[in-house]
């Protein structure tokens, strides 16, 4: 048995592979022609012609997805990177973010952002997007969880 994930084919002769089927998959496979050799599951709303071309290896997965990419498609990767940044920040700073309340956070955040862009404009330092997102996240937590600051 072989399976194709994105553009990589895995062969069960080389390594273990597993296909996890739901009831609809089992029904669909049971209804396949005896000479059919491929079964593909794909997100609803996908262009079927592109999917069939991908199944025939005429298109790469990237070519299929280029016009279908949504911003939320990057969330899993983003959350992983952001979580690692928060863990790193926690080792360095601990819970010092709790020492300041919501009051004045807009001004403090604007100053931080301006400092980052000054460093970019004057010294070519790359904009630290994860720090910017981290600052925004702290502001969001402060606004949405005031109980953290109640005595």
Describe the structure.
α4 crosses α6 and α5 packs antiparallel against α6. 50% of the residues lie in helices and 5% in strands. By secondary structure, the chain is mostly helical. It is elongated, with a radius of gyration of 24 Å. The chain folds into two domains: 68 residues, no CATH class; 77 residues, no CATH class. It has a two-stranded antiparallel ribbon with strand order 1-2. The chain has six helices and two strands.
Summarize the structure.
By secondary structure, the protein is mainly α.
Give the arrangement of secondary structure elements.
Blueprint: E1 2-5, E2 8-11, H1 23-30, H2 48-55, H3 61-65, H4 75-93, H5 105-123, H6 129-144
Antiparallel strand pairs: 1-2
């Amino acid at each position: 048995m072989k399976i194709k994930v994105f553009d990589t084919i895995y062969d069960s002769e080389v390594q273990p592979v597993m296909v996890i089927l739901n009831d609809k998959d089992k029904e669909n496979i049971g209804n396949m022609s005896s000479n059919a050799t491929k079964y593909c599951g794909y997100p609803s709303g996908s262009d079927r012609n592109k999917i069939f071309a991908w199944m025939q290896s005429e298109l790469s997965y990237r070519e299929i997805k280029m016009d279908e990419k949504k911003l939320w498609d990057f969330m899993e990767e983003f959350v992983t990177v952001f979580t690692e940044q928060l863990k790193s920040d926690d080792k360095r700073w601990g819970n010092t973010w709790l020492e300041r309340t919501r009051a004045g956070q807009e001004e403090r955040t604007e100053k931080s952002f301006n400092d980052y862009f000054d460093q970019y404009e004057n010294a070519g330092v790359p904009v630290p997007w994860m720090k910017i997102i981290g600052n925004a996240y702290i502001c969001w937590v402060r606004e949405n969880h005031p109980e953290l600051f109640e005595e």
